[in-house]
Amino acid sequence: MPASTEAALPYHEPDIITILVLVSFVLLLNFVNHLVNHVLYCGLLAQILLGIAWGTPGGKWLGHDLEQAIVDLGYLGLILIVYEGGLLTSFKALKDNLLLSIGVATTGICVPIALSYALLSLVGATALQAFAAGAALCSTSLGTTFSVLSASGLSTTRMGVVLTSAAMMDDVVGLVMVQVISNLGIATSHFSVVTVLRPILVSLGLVLVMLLAARFVAMPVTIWFNELRTSQPEGKLGRLLSSRVLPLGVHIAVLIGALTAAIYAGTSGLFAAYLAGATITWWDDHVPHPLCPPVVSAPPAEILSSGRGSGHAHESSGTMATSQSAIQGQQKTRSTGADVFEQVLAQPLRRILSPFFFASIGFSIPVSRMFAADTVWKGIVYTTLMFVGKLVCGLWLVRFSGLAGTLRMPRPKYLGSPLSHSTAAVSSAAPNRNEASPPGPAETSESVPDPNDASKEGVSPQQNDASPTSKSQDNKVLNEKQKTLQASPVKPLSLYPGCVLGCAMVARGEIGFLISAIAESNGIYGDEPNGPIFLVVTWAIMLCTFIGPLLVGALVKRIQHLDNHSGGARSEVLGVWGVT
């Protein structure tokens, strides 16, 4: 950045046109997001379209300087979106699904790159150009993925954990591809394997450093501070350690430190943001956080007056204990990373920074040069290939006969299919009843109680005589149900989890545009600016970024509709993948 000779920036009042453009832009970003999210859970698409309309591709109402400022602020929003995704990481679920996440990520990387070699015959690209296009399309938009999962409420489910982990791995590989593509644009004599391997090695080193720091630095220091806070709860240090300011400062310091270290070391800042959030979540879950005795205000007058009697005194003490436990739980939740984020950073992110990020994607779409007939149909064909290349990732969540045990890690017993539990219950209950000796009248009245007689003192002889008949009918119904279950085939696993996963992986977004723009600026796509290969790749990135969240929103809407008809049991639709 060139040094400026000005001592200060002169202040000028913005004109009314600038004010109206800014007000309409910010308000519409939030309004269309709320409206489309309410219908299809993909308000980010409307924000991208608004960025196209207000930015350089459309009306050019914002101006270049303001667009650049929005891009910079939007990238801060992307960092916070990815950081929030790290905060929502469940390490237990991640550990249980690590191999599955690796399989999904590998599929989402290899298949698009392999299918991109169709560009050799489609647009006459070279092998290097096809590889560069595949590198741009192998990524998954982290911001889009996290936003769709948050809007749909699936971020904490087992499927959400697999999707988040796979998208993060795709992003790491995509950001490695940024360096690869950048190096491929240089002369081959300057090409070095070190510059290609550096982002990979730095990413692995960053993970190792964060793990060691959390285990051998953060844990002992936290335990030591907790002892000080417990021993001196009324001292200045005790009050500081119990305040809400300290966790916020620590969390922001961890995030900024990880970002700075990662970027200067040569790897992805987004990966560092995700790793910082995940580390804070591990710290919240595994490091003990003893609380100071809460300061309880004077009890209300009605509680004191109700405590004068012996019976009411016991009730008032229970009320006081309940209120104290509620205060303790409230203090505990204030210090966790997710709660600090929700209290301080969530509103600026959701109202300003996140809309700016998705609008900035719209700034980079060259709409005016993409509608030549030859470019359109080639772009649609390539989009179809890239859509299929990511959609096949959903096959990892589909059970294939004989392969389920080898393609998945063992799942806990509590995640068993509801149908298997019901079948086992019927098969175990029916033989016990058939093998039991015929009960007498007294035994029958005890073993098969009538709900209508729960409030009655005795049972009439007519009811005792009718009990064996009702039991025989019960046995008959159970036997018929067991025969039906045995005769019918096993209920197939729902295809909704695989479809949601595959469609959520389709969106390329910011990383795809970044890799494609670097390849274009380095001349890999050819010497012609905005050449045919670049436009076809841009078509694929843009349409995939639109179609993926749109389909995910429609699927989530359908899942919620089925949940409402099944009594709100998500497991009936998503199976084990809907478990949080």
Automatic annotation (TrEMBL):
<dbReference type="GO" id="GO:0015297">
    <property type="term" value="F:antiporter activity"/>
</dbReference>
<keyword id="KW-0813">Transport</keyword>
<protein>
    <recommendedName>
        <fullName>Cation/H+ exchanger transmembrane domain-containing protein</fullName>
    </recommendedName>
</protein>
<dbReference type="GO" id="GO:0006814">
    <property type="term" value="P:sodium ion transport"/>
</dbReference>
<feature type="transmembrane region" description="Helical">
    <location>
        <begin position="201"/>
        <end position="225"/>
    </location>
</feature>
<keyword id="KW-0050">Antiport</keyword>
<dbReference type="Pfam" id="PF00999">
    <property type="entry name" value="Na_H_Exchanger"/>
</dbReference>
<dbReference type="InterPro" id="IPR038770">
    <property type="entry name" value="Na+/solute_symporter_sf"/>
</dbReference>
<dbReference type="GO" id="GO:1902600">
    <property type="term" value="P:proton transmembrane transport"/>
</dbReference>
<feature type="transmembrane region" description="Helical">
    <location>
        <begin position="39"/>
        <end position="57"/>
    </location>
</feature>
<keyword id="KW-0812">Transmembrane</keyword>
<dbReference type="GO" id="GO:0016020">
    <property type="term" value="C:membrane"/>
</dbReference>
<feature type="transmembrane region" description="Helical">
    <location>
        <begin position="161"/>
        <end position="181"/>
    </location>
</feature>
<keyword id="KW-0915">Sodium</keyword>
<keyword id="KW-0739">Sodium transport</keyword>
<feature type="domain" description="Cation/H+ exchanger transmembrane">
    <location>
        <begin position="43"/>
        <end position="281"/>
    </location>
</feature>
<feature type="region of interest" description="Disordered">
    <location>
        <begin position="425"/>
        <end position="476"/>
    </location>
</feature>
<feature type="transmembrane region" description="Helical">
    <location>
        <begin position="379"/>
        <end position="398"/>
    </location>
</feature>
<dbReference type="InterPro" id="IPR006153">
    <property type="entry name" value="Cation/H_exchanger_TM"/>
</dbReference>
<feature type="transmembrane region" description="Helical">
    <location>
        <begin position="245"/>
        <end position="265"/>
    </location>
</feature>
<feature type="transmembrane region" description="Helical">
    <location>
        <begin position="69"/>
        <end position="91"/>
    </location>
</feature>
<keyword id="KW-0472">Membrane</keyword>
<feature type="transmembrane region" description="Helical">
    <location>
        <begin position="98"/>
        <end position="120"/>
    </location>
</feature>
<feature type="transmembrane region" description="Helical">
    <location>
        <begin position="16"/>
        <end position="32"/>
    </location>
</feature>
<feature type="transmembrane region" description="Helical">
    <location>
        <begin position="533"/>
        <end position="556"/>
    </location>
</feature>
<keyword id="KW-0406">Ion transport</keyword>
<feature type="transmembrane region" description="Helical">
    <location>
        <begin position="126"/>
        <end position="149"/>
    </location>
</feature>
<keyword id="KW-1133">Transmembrane helix</keyword>
<feature type="compositionally biased region" description="Polar residues">
    <location>
        <begin position="425"/>
        <end position="435"/>
    </location>
</feature>
<feature type="compositionally biased region" description="Polar residues">
    <location>
        <begin position="460"/>
        <end position="472"/>
    </location>
</feature>
